[in-house]
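$ ./design --mode recover --in tokens.txt
reading tokens...
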């Protein structure tokens, strides 16, 4: 991880030296041409290096010192990207320090979740807004992906296949239960 930290430090310096709008793409294209990595990976590496050189210098220093892995550094940045803009530098450093210390105990995915949870403690209103956005997005996706296919099996039954949002599925089950007699009613019927 020290090598990854040194590599990202070099990328950050190269990006800072590049003129204007040409910071990320030309450097990423050079990395792509000289190394055997995709342009997407090269752009992500330059973006990561630039962020680490900006507000996340504690995370960068921990990466260079070998305290955390590159995956942990990415997890910290992804988790902290939604932090409130009004967060002071001292608060940002305290959050980074806490996450760096937790990196020894948690894998990158768990660390990212912890970073996201810190947002809830720091700014509950922002956390509520992010949760509302996520719930709305999930509901919209569930609605867009819904489908029901009903086909006869030619043996006196119908085959039903589909995917519905939970609320719609519960409503359909309630309606089907109301339409279908119970199995006890079949047993009690005279021959």
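writing sequence...
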């Amino acid at each position: 991880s020290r090598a990854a930290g040194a590599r990202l430090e070099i990328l950050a310096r190269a990006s800072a030296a590049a003129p204007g709008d040409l910071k990320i793409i030309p450097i990423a294209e050079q990395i792509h041409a000289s190394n055997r990595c995709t342009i997407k990976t090269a752009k992500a590496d330059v973006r990561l290096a630039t962020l680490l050189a900006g507000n996340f210098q504690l995370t960068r220093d921990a990466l260079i010192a070998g305290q955390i892995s590159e995956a942990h550094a990415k997890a910290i940045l992804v988790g902290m990207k939604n932090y409130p803009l009004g967060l002071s530098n001292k608060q940002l450093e305290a959050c980074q320090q806490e996450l760096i210390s937790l990196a020894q105990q948690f894998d990158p995915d768990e660390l990212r979740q912890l970073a996201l949870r810190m947002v809830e403690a720091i700014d509950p209103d922002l956390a509520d807004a992010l949760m509302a956005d996520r719930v709305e997005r999930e509901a919209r996706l569930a609605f867009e992906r819904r489908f029901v296919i009903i086909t006869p099996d030619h043996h006196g039954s119908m085959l039903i296949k589909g995917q519905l949002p939970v609320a719609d599925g519960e409503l359909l089950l309630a309606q089907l239960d109301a339409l279908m007699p119970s199995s006890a009613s079949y047993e009690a019927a005279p021959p």
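exit 0
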